[in-house]
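Example with several molecule types.
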Amino acid sequence: MADVDSFRTEIRAWLAANCPPTCQGKSNVLPDMVWGGRRQTWPHPDAKLWFDRLVEKGFTVPTWPKAYGGAGISPAENKVLQEEMARIGTRSMLFNFGIGMLAPALMEFASEDQKRLHLNRTARGEIRWCQGYSEPGAGSDLASLRTSAVRDGDDYVINGQKIWTSDANVSDWIFCLVRTDPEAPKHLGISFLLFDMESPGVSTSPIELISGSSPFCQTFFDNVRVPVTQRVHTENRGWDVAKALLNHERTMLADGGRGSAAGAARKSLLQVARQAMGASEGRLPDAAMREELVQWEMDRLCYEATLKRTMDAAKAGKGMGPEGSMFKLYLSEMNQRGADLRQRIAGHEALVWTGDDCPADERQITREWLYGKASTILGGTSEIQLNIISKRVLGLPGD
Amino acid sequence: MADVDSFRTEIRAWLAANCPPTCQGKSNVLPDMVWGGRRQTWPHPDAKLWFDRLVEKGFTVPTWPKAYGGAGISPAENKVLQEEMARIGTRSMLFNFGIGMLAPALMEFASEDQKRLHLNRTARGEIRWCQGYSEPGAGSDLASLRTSAVRDGDDYVINGQKIWTSDANVSDWIFCLVRTDPEAPKHLGISFLLFDMESPGVSTSPIELISGSSPFCQTFFDNVRVPVTQRVHTENRGWDVAKALLNHERTMLADGGRGSAAGAARKSLLQVARQAMGASEGRLPDAAMREELVQWEMDRLCYEATLKRTMDAAKAGKGMGPEGSMFKLYLSEMNQRGADLRQRIAGHEALVWTGDDCPADERQITREWLYGKASTILGGTSEIQLNIISKRVLGLPGD
Amino acid sequence: MSLILTEEQVQLQDSANAFVADNWTVGELRKLRKDTGKGYPEALWQKAAELGWLAIPFAEEYGGLGLGFAELGVVLEELGRGLVVLPIVSSVVLGGGALRLGGTEDQKKAWLPKVCDGSALLTLASQETSRHDPYAVQTTATRQGNGYVLKGRKVLVPDGHAADAIVVVARTSGALGDRSGLTLFLVDPSAPDVKVHRNLLLDSRVAANVELNDVRVDASAVVGTVDQGADVLDQVLAEAAVALSADMLGGIQQTFEITLDYLKVREQFGAKIGSFQGLKHRAARWFCEKELSKSIVLQTLRALDEKAENALQLASVCKARVSDTARLSGKEGVQMHGGIGVTDEHDIGLFMKRGRVSEMLFGDAAFHRNRFAQMKGY
Amino acid sequence: MSLILTEEQVQLQDSANAFVADNWTVGELRKLRKDTGKGYPEALWQKAAELGWLAIPFAEEYGGLGLGFAELGVVLEELGRGLVVLPIVSSVVLGGGALRLGGTEDQKKAWLPKVCDGSALLTLASQETSRHDPYAVQTTATRQGNGYVLKGRKVLVPDGHAADAIVVVARTSGALGDRSGLTLFLVDPSAPDVKVHRNLLLDSRVAANVELNDVRVDASAVVGTVDQGADVLDQVLAEAAVALSADMLGGIQQTFEITLDYLKVREQFGAKIGSFQGLKHRAARWFCEKELSKSIVLQTLRALDEKAENALQLASVCKARVSDTARLSGKEGVQMHGGIGVTDEHDIGLFMKRGRVSEMLFGDAAFHRNRFAQMKGY
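Resulting C-alpha cells for the full complex:
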C-alpha cells in the first residue's frame, strides 16, 4: 500500500505540473476520443499539448512495457492513475481498434521488430487501425475467406474484397487476413498482414445500412503490394492470430457495452415510457408494456451482476475464456430488445423518419433500433456465439 | 340434396324403431366410450342391445365398405347420421386405436383376407388394439427398433421389448413393428405384424409417470410365435405401413385435441383465475398473469381458426399432408402451456399432492400439468415435428 | 363461413398478383424517400381504381361493387406482399369507411363515388397521443352558430398530406378518455385554419400531423351522431386494423419466402445454412406462427362481412397476433440473412420497416390484448 | 462486495457437498411420500445442527455463529442440488428470522438457542389466499384482557405440522390488503384451539394448513411492534425468497448438469443428441439463464448481509429471475430427456417438482415483477 500511496503522490504532482487547466473539469477542451492517425484534428492547441505529454510518459497505454510506448506500470498503479485523472476531470483520450484488439495479439505473435515499430506508433496515436476480416461470401464462416496474397519476390500481391471494415475510409493501416495457400484446409492457408491503407490499389466504399449511413465500408484490393516483413507470425498460421484477436474483441465488446448501450438505455426506458404514456395512480397505465419493461430491467440487473462476478473472478486470477461468447450473445440481444421496447413505447413520433414537426430524440430512437439489428450479426452472429458456448463451454459434440 | 333428404327420413325411421329410449337424451345409460374387446363390460343391457344394433347396420364405422363391417355410406350421409343421432341424444360409442390409426393403414396395405378378418372384427368391437412401436433404446429414432422376429417354419419368433404401449394390459391384439432383417439399413429391415396379446410369452408391466399411475405399459416378448400370415404388407417393408399410420395418428391427435383438452381448458382458465385472485374493478388484479392468460386465449382462437381452415381445405379436396405435424406440435405445446398457467394461477392448493384439507379439483390441476409434460414427447417429440415440418413442408435440406 | 378462397377470390388474387408484378418493384420504396409530393405512385392509383379495387366495399348506388372485406383483404394481402404504397386503407377503409358507416345521404353521394373512382382521397384524423388511444381526444369542437369550431392537433394521419377531405374526431362533451362525447366531422384540409405537416415514416409511407386552429365547419359536416362518434370510430378502427393485418400478412409471407429461399442457397461451413437445425427449427416455428396469422386474418375478414357478434373481439385477436408475427418475421428475416440483411441495399430490411410501422398503427399487440381482456372480462 | 466465494465459503461448500454425498440420495424423496411423521429425516437434521448450519445467521449470544446469508446460501445451494429435505428455511429463515428481526430479548433467549441447536423447529404462518399476497390477511387478533384472541385460517405453512412454535401474522387493525395493521404473534401449535392439517406437497416436502379457532395468547407473544408487523414481515419474506432462491439455484444447476450429461451420451439417428443444433442452441441459452441466476443469487445474498438500501428490490429481482429459470430448467430438463423424463423412475422429474413448488412459494415471478415495479415507480 505504501508503494501505491507514493505513486499517488507522484502522479498528483505530475498532473499538477503537466495537465493544462483548460484540459480539466467539466468544461474542458478535450475531444471525446482521439482515434489518432494522419487525419487527427485538435479542437484546441492545449488538447494536443496534453496529449503529447501523455504520450511522452507512456500514459496513453499505461500498462504496456516502456519499450513499446507504455509506462510499464502495474494494474494497481493504473487504477490510481485513472482515479487521479478522474479526480481533476481529465483523461487519456486515445482509443482505437489497435489498442484493444490488435496490440494483445501482436504482443503474443509478432516479432520483436514488429512490436517495437507498430506498438510504439499505436501508443503515440500515429496510426488509426482498421480490421480486414469479413468478406461478402464468407459471413459467419470467417475462415472461408478468399482474398488472395500471392508471393512475388519480397512482396505479397493482394487481390480481393473485405466487408464490414469499420472506418476503413478514415483509417491509416489495416490488419488483414489473406489466403496464402488456396490448396490447404481452410484454416491452414491463412496469413495475417499489416499494411498501409494508402498503398496503391486499395480503395473503399461506405456501406449504407437500414439505419442510414454507417461507419462500415467495403474495401477493395487490386494488386496491392505488401512486403513479406509485414506478415505477423508464420505464413499460413494467421488463423491463430485471428482467433486470439477475436477473443479480445468479444471481451472488449462485453465490457464496453457496460458503459454505453446498457447504461444509456437504463436512463431512458422508464423516462420514455412515462413521457409516452403518462402515469395513472403513479403507475404506467399500460400493464402489458410495464411487464415487458420490468422484465428487461431485471435482465439488465442480472447481466450486470454476471459481468461483475466474472470480473471479480478475473481479479482473483480466473480468466474469462470462452464465456466471452455469453456476454456478446446476451448483451447484444438484451440491448436489441431494449431498443425495440424503447421504439415501441415511444409510439408515433418514433415512426417518423423525416419531418418538420417531430422531435429529433424520437427519430434517433428509431435509428438506434435499426442499428441495433446489426449487433446480433456483426462481430459474430448470435448463432456463432451459441455454437461456441455449446462446444467450448459445455463440451457438446460438433454437428 | 334430394338423396340426402330421403336418407335423413330413412335414418329417422330406423332410429325410432331401433334406439331404446334408455339410450337417448341427457340421462341415457350409455357408457362414454366402448373400447371393445374381451374385457368390455356393459353398464346396462340396453346399451349392449343398442350397440349390437349399430354393429348390425355397420354404424360403428359408417363410412367403411360393407364388406369390412361398415355401412358404406358417403361422408355427406354420415354427417346426416351423426346429426340425427345427436338430435335424439344418442351416439355410436365404439372408439379404439384400431379404428382411427390401424384401419386406414390396413385398407392401404393389407391383403384382402386380412382386411375382411381384422376390419370386421374391429368394426364389431371384438378387438381392442394396442400399438407396439416405441422401444426403450430407440426413442424418437423409431426406426432403430431392435425387437427381433426370426423366421421359424410358418412362424416368426419374437423377442424384445416395447415401451409406451397404451393400455397394453387391457388390450386384445397388438399391431407391432419388428426387425426381420438386422443386416439391412434400418428402415429396410422392419416388418409389421398383428398378434394376440394372450399369445404365450407376452407380458406387460404398467409405467408410473411423474403424474402418477398411467395407461402406458412396458411390453415384453419372450419367444412369442406369430404366424407369418399375420404380417401385413411385404416382409422388411413394414416401415411404409408405419409411416402411413403415424400420419393418421397425428391427424387424429390434432382433431381429437379440439374437443377435449383445448375445450376443457377454455372453460376453466378464466374461472380458475377469478377463483384464485378475485377481481378488482371487474378485472383480474394480477396484470402479469392476465397478460399471459389473454395471450393463451388468443393463441387458442388462432389455432382453432387454423384447424377450421385446414378442414375447410380438406373438404374442398386438399389433403392435410405433413402439416399434421404442425397441429401436433402446436396443440401439445399450447395445451402444455395452458396446463402450466392453470397450475400457476391456482396457487397453493395446486401444490398439494395429498392432504385432507384440500379440494380435489386443484389436486387434479397439478396431475394434468404433469401429465401434459408427456404430450410434447410421446407420439413424436416436438423436436421430431420440427424436423418433419422443416423437411417435408418447408423443403429444407437434411442435417 | 369457409376459410378458403372462393373461385372469384382466387381470380382477384391472381389479378392483384399480376398487377404488382407488372407495375412495381420493392425497390421503388427507396425512390419514395426523396419524393415530396403525394408519396404514392399516382399512375398506379388510377390503375387500381380502374380495376375496381377502391369500390370493393361500397354499395352499388354509390359507385361501389357491393363486395366485402374478404375481397378487399385478398387485394391488400397481395399489395402487402409487394410492399406497394397506395392509400387504400386511408381512403377506402378509414375515410370512406366512416362515411359508409355514419355518413348522411348527402355526404355519401358527394364523396363515395369519388372514393370509388379514385378521384378523391379521404382519410381519418383520430390519434393525438404518442401511443394509439382512441378516446384520448383533446381536440375540441365547440358549437358556434349553425356550426362548430374545431381546435386541436392530430398526429399520424395516414396520407393526410394528400387528402381531399379528412374525417376528424373531436370532443363535443365529456372528459379526456371518455368513450362518449366524441363527434366526427368532415373537414376540408385546404381551409385556411388547417395546417398539415407532411412526415415521411420509416417505411417510406407518409402520414401527416394536422393542426386545427379554430377551424369553422358547418353542422352538415357532422358524420354520424353528435357525442356518439365512438360507435362509428370503434368500427372503423377495427376494420382498419383488420385491413392492415391483411397487408401485414402479405409482408410476413413474402419475408418468410425470401428467407426460406436464402436458407436453401446460402452456404456456410460447407453446407446450406438451411440444413442447420438451429435455423431450421426456428423456421418451422415461424412457419406455424405465419399459418396461425393467416387463419385469423381470413376468419376476421369474414366475421366483419357477416357482422358477427364477436367481430370486434376477433379484430383485436387478429391485430395482436399479426403484429406479433410481423415483429417475429422482421427479426428472423433480418437475422437469418446475416450481414447483408442489415444493409440498405437488400430488400429484407424494407419488409421489416413496413411491418414495424403497421405493427404500431391502429393499436399494437399490447393495446389489443388489453382491449380484448376488457371485452372478455379478464 | 465481491461475487466470488471466500476461502471459508469454499470450505463450507465442500463440507455441504460431502454431507449430501454421504447421507442422502435423491431417491429418498420417493420414500417421503409415504412418510406420515415429520416429513424430513430427523437424523440428518441433527447432523446439520451439529455442523452449525442452523446457527449461521444468529448472533453468538444466542448460540449463533454470527455469519450471514452468503454462508447460509452456500449450504442451501448444495442441499438444493441434492434435493435434500430439511426445514432450514422454515426454522432458521422464517420463524427464527422473525424473532431475530423483531423478537423481544425474552423471546430470543427462549427460542434462538434451540433453533441453533436444532432442538426446536419454528416456522411462519403468513399466507391465506391461493396466491402469495402478504397483506391479504383476514386472520384477526382481538385484544382481550392481557392478551389477544386469534381467529382465522392459514395455508401453506412450511413444516407447520412439525413446528414447536409458529409465528402467526394477524390483523390488529386496518382493512384487508392494508400494509399497516398487521401484528406478529408467537403461537404454540399444540394449544387446544389450534388445528394443524398436514399436506404433502407435490415435491414431497410438507406444509400445513393451520386453523386458529379463538386461540388465546398473552401480550408477551407479540413479535415486533403491534400494527407494524409488516416491517418485520417484509424483511423475513424477502430473506426467505432469497434463501429459497439459493436452494433453487442448486436444483437448476444439477438439472442442467444431469441433462448435459445425457445429451453427451444418448444417441439417436446415429449421433449423440447433443450434436443436434436444435438441442445444442437451447442448452447454450439455458446455460446463460443459469449463469445469470447464479449471479443475482450471489449478489442478493450479499446485499442482505450488507443491509444494502436496494436489498428488497434485489430480492424481488432474484426470486423472479430464479423462478423463471427454474421453470425453464424443469421444462428443458424433462423435454430433453424424452420419454424417460416423464417416468416416475427417473430423477429429473423430481427436480422439476421441487423447482415448481419453490417457484410459487413466497411469491412467484409475476408477484415479484409487480412488486419490483411498484418499488421502482414503473
